[in-house]
Amino acid sequence: MSRRKDDLADSRWGRFKRWLDGEVDPLMAPDMETVAPRSAEAAGQAGSAVREEAAGQAGSAVRAETGGQAGSAVREEAAGQTGSAVRAETAVQTGTAAAVQAGAGSAVRQAADRTALAGTDGSVRSAAQAVLPAKRRKGRLYDRVYQVMSVILCLGIISVLLWTIAYLPVFGNAGNPDNNEVSARYIERGLQETGAVNIVTGMILDYRAFDTFGESCVLFIASCCVLVLLRIDKESGAEGVKERLKAADDRRFEPKEDIILQKCAMVLSPVIFVFGIYIILNGHLSPGGGFSGGAVLGSGLILYLNAFGFEKTERFFNTKTYRRITVSALSFYCLAKSYSFFTGANHLESGIPLGTPGAIISSGLILPLNICVGMVVACTMYAFYTLFRKGDM
Fold first, then answer.
1. Distance between CA atoms of residues 348 and 267, nearest Å
2. CA–CA distance, 270 with 298 (Å, rounded to integer)
3. What is the pLDDT of residue 255?
């Protein structure tokens, strides 16, 4: 226990506490020795001792000299020595008085400094003691209000959800909202009106084409936001760009020539690309479409990038390629469906042939719209991966 007390006394907190209590002078060095000034009584005693010693020495010298010399010489020498002793005693008294005054002045100044420091420390401590409880009370009040509001919000959300569930229709009831003429129209006349064998593709790219267009725009906007936040601009000329690009080197923590990965990518990448294109082109004939086919194409690009790096991938796909593909695909999608909806709302013939159901070139605008959606999805997947990995494409 005593060892812990000694460690506490020698620690920074112990020295800080002693300084607050006025036990340590903050202006004094740690190895400086404090010497208290002498009082007037001590100075008087020192002066008396000096004078007695000087008089004794002078008397002894006079008596010894008187025994060996003539009377006149003795008197002259005694007088000279007596004068010297008196002058020495006067000098000693003067120096002692000056020392006493200097010591008294330094003592007064130190006492004044300590008093001022003690007053300042007392005011600081009192102010801190007055402010801290207020802050603590305010923080506790905020925490309690926050907790209460969180509980109320959670209970409100739960109540709304339960109230909504209570008003849901009975499962399997023939009068439910999902059993209406819309779904029946999709099933009965979907092939005739859209030309797509896949009813789901005909619904999302013809009846609800603007919903799909909004989803594609969401993907494009999300990739643009990530591009703005994470892209490292090589042409800005700002300081540290080269260091950031070097730190974001895609081959820094990976083997530069992984022969196994490269051989596998050489075999799998073409197969993945062909399969993705097949899914996109057959989206109106079989399960698939632009979203699933675009995801397959994006995975193929990511595999090729991991195997061969950015240097080879940027030969055919970079930032400019991404911008041109996404902007062209979204623009064509918007213009094509705007024309289609305009003619349909005004009961006009669009002039776009639906083709033979089951053929590749059929279903009107659904095939090119599937291609546009697949391009946007593939570019978005690849852009997300490259931006999070390197900060550029």
1. 50
2. 12
3. 56
pLDDT tens profile 272-315: 999 999 999 999 898 888 999 999 999 999 999 989 888 888 88
Distance separating alpha carbons of residues 196 and 368, to the nearest angstrom: 13
Q: How many other CB atoms are there within 10 angstroms of residue 301's CB atom?
A: 23
Q: Which amino acid is at 105?
A: G
In angstroms, the CA 211 to CA 47 distance is: 109
Q: Give the H or E element holding residue 151.
A: helix 71-166
CA–CA dist 29, 36 (Å, integer): 16
Mean pLDDT of 4-28: 65
Q: Are 393 and 383 in contact (CB under 8 A)?
A: yes
Quick: pLDDT tens for 58-68. Answer: 445 435 444 44
Give the span between the Cα atoms of 159 and 154, in whole angstroms. 9
**With pLDDT > 70 as the criterion, what percentage of the chain qualifies?**
61
Side chain identity at residue 283, one-letter code: G
Residue 198 backbone phi and psi in degrees, to 5: -80, 110
Question: Residue 42 is encoded by which pair of tokens?
Answer: 């001590």
The β-bridge partners of 278 are none
